[in-house]
Amino acid sequence: SAVISQKPSRDICQRGTSLTIQCQVDSQVTMMFWYRQQPGQSLTLIATANQGSEATYESGFVIDKFPISRPNLTFSTLTVSNMSPEDSSIYLCSAEETGELFFGEGSRLTVL
Amino acid sequence: EDKVVQSPLSLVVHEGDTVTLNCSYEVTNFRSLLWYKQEKKAPTFLFMLTSSGIEKKSGRLSSILDKKELFSILNITATQTGDSAIYLCAVGKTSYDKVIFGPGTSLSVIP
């Protein structure tokens, strides 16, 4: 199974700033995904990150707010831009391998 | 609109009890149903189900899928306090290989 490393694991950020979360997979994967989990909620898909093309965003999420990079088959970044307290969440990177979805450890962001 | 529903949303049981968690779905282009356990941050994979009627087992946990009735159950026998977690049901779609999560069932096992 794929092993996914994600950093930072947690951060406290000031309103109006931006933070980039990095996700590294130990094998080449075609599909990588970014999820958000707000307090007490389930996982909501933000976007699908495809290597060599622009990310595909779900309804309610836009590229200006959550720009994503996918420079190769093992790495992706998610930036949370112009943060507000409503962006306080756990952000999870995931990758699909043989039909199973594996997750990184998550990044817990708190915006003050 | 694609939908994954879980019930109950929360459950408190005593150690040794058997629990059944339910998941129903309405999803186009169904490919697979997945169960995860979430204790802290990252969900950990439990089962992937693609065929109806074939039970998957791992220790005290088992799961089965009914593609005709569009639901799955996760059974946990002889529960232990370490089973306390949120159990997430998710459905994988063939289009864009997207995975949609249900709201989760919060299970608390008390001694």
Structure description:
The complex is a heterodimer of chains A (112) and B (111). Chain A is an all-beta fold and 112 residues long. Chain A has strands at 4-7, 10-13, 19-25, 31-37, 44-50, 56-57, 68-72, 75-80, 89-97, 100-103, 107-111. Helix content of chain A is 0%, strand content 54%. In chain A, strands 2, 4, 5, 6, 9, 10 and 11 form a 7-stranded mixed β-sheet that branches. In chain A, strands 1-3-8-7 form a 4-stranded antiparallel β-sheet, with no helix packed on it. The model of chain A has no long low-confidence stretch (mean pLDDT 92). Chain B is built from no helices and 11 strands. In chain B, strand 4 (30-38) and strand 5 form a beta hairpin. Chain B is globular. The interface between A and B is medium-sized, with 25 and 22 residues.
Q: Outline of this structure?
A:
By secondary structure, chain A is an all-beta fold. Chain A is built from no helices and eleven strands.
Continuous helix count of chain A: 0
> What's the assembly state of these chains?
heterodimer
> What structural class do helix, strand and pairing data of chain B support?
mainly beta
CA distance, first residue to last residue of chain A = 37 Å
Individual helix count of chain B: 0
